[in-house]
Amino acid sequence: MSIAKFIAGQLRQPAGFFGRRVMVLVLNRMNYSMNTLALEVLQLSPDDHVLEIGFGGGELMTRMASAVTRGKIAGADFSIDAVDICTKRFKQLIKSGKVDLCCANVEELPFEANRFFKVCTVNTIYFWSDPFVALAQIYRVLKKDGRLVVCFRPREAVKNQKIMQHGFTLYDPEEVGVLLTKAGFRDVQLLHRKYRFEECAAAVGKK
Fold this sequence. Notes:
Oligomer: single chain
Strand content: 25-35%
Largest sheet: 7 strands, mixed
Helix content: 40-55%
CATH topology of the domain at 3-145: Rossmann fold
Number of strands: 7
Order of helices and strands: HHHEHEHHEEHEHHEE
Structural class: alpha/beta
Distance between the termini: 42 Å
């Protein structure tokens, strides 16, 4: 197995010693700028109930917890190792009932309908085997007028990276916008940001 293929697999689903000790820390660092964009677009309030899909090492969740002081935060991640690490990291918040974490696929979210005011996901859309099933699940768990924020790196910004040849489905921002619209989301907006040499995009839709 090539190094690029191994790293790509770890980005999709951190696992084992490398995933627990290295990859979750890498995810926290490499997603920092995109997490900043997600926070900007989410416009969190103290009483929000928010779901993060694919929380990795928990960097964004830490920042969300500072903003959501009276509400609740849930997280679903495909990696049991990421869940285990963040269960320890957020032990006190979980104990208090403010944070709820689970290991789950975006296509089978274990939450009741109309639960969340806001849902966000950062750098996960590339790995969704069926985007319409995933978006249907997100739509189901959002409250009426709830907001979805999908952050990702545009195809043109990363298409020449070798790692992207292994299990990534890349998207132009306009393609993600079409996906959200076809899935039933309204008032879809596309945002672009550049942080130094990093290009980020966000697709935002309302239920």
